[in-house]
Each structure stands twice: as C-alpha cells, then as structure tokens.
Amino acid sequence: MNPVENQLECGKEQNWVYIDNGTFRLSQQALLKHGPIECAYRSILRENDFSAVEGQRLYPVVDRMPLISDFFHADCRASDGSIYNNIHSGIHFDATLHERHSESSADKTPLNYNVLMFGYDSVSRISFMRLLPKTYMYLIQQLGAVVMKVPVYGSA
C-alpha cells in the first residue's frame, strides 16, 4: 500500500524547543537567529482515554529545566518579535516509578527481548502512513519493519 498523495506541509524552520534526556531545551539555531527567547510551559494531562486538559501556565521556563509532564504546550517569544507555539512530548523523570521498578521481583531475570510492536487500527495505520511518510518508510526500509495490513490482531 502506498502513502496517500496529500501530505502535510510542515514548517521549514526548525523547532525552537526540543527535549534532551528529560529536559526542556532551547535550540541554539533559534537563539542565534532570533536572539534571547522567553518561553512558557503548559502541561497536557490526560483525564481519560478520550480527553486531555492543559495545566497552569508556568513562566518563565529556562533552558535545561526538567520536564514536569510527558506532554506539554510551549509558547515562546523572541526578542526580535518572532513567536513560536508547538506541542511537544518527552519523558519526564518520576522517582516513584524508579522506586517501584527497583522493588519489583519480576525484573530480576529480564528476558531481553528486542521486539517493538506498533498496534494501529486500519484508520490510524493509514493516517500514520499519510501524515508521517518519512517515518513509515524509515521503519520499513531501514529497520525492516513488517506491516501486517490487517485491521484486527488476535481475537476480536
């Protein structure tokens, strides 16, 4: 199956914000191009499987600040008047998860599997192919991913 011809047009400018090892980072390229940048951060929290809410606005957010949540909305303004708004995802450090992991007896003998499985329904799979064609092709061509092309895995 080939990706749909109508692809999303992404902005040409690189993101001002990126995540590095659980920390909020400002791009050096954006700083050089736009000058000093001030950002605000709103956590995006899932209420349930079908809805999410934005948390309180945290301002100012500084470079190398640890993430507060896995998903967040960043809005930034540069000294040259440029504005940046985007939603980002990363993995924030949660000490309680690490404590629970170290206490777990099941992890004493890991199985060391090297398998990654994406489970999409047919609509999501097609959307993934259409909206992220480079990622899809990388998975297929570079990583040798196998696309099952069936709508349901296992018993329905």
TrEMBL record:
Domain of life where this protein originates: Eukaryota
Pfam family, one: DUF229
Cellular-component GO terms for this entry: extracellular space
Record InterPro entries: DUF229
Database matches in PANTHER family: FI08016P-RELATED
Name this polypeptide is given: Uncharacterized protein
Species of the source: Didymodactylos carnosus
Highest classification ranks of the organism: Eukaryota, Metazoa, Spiralia, Gnathifera, Rotifera
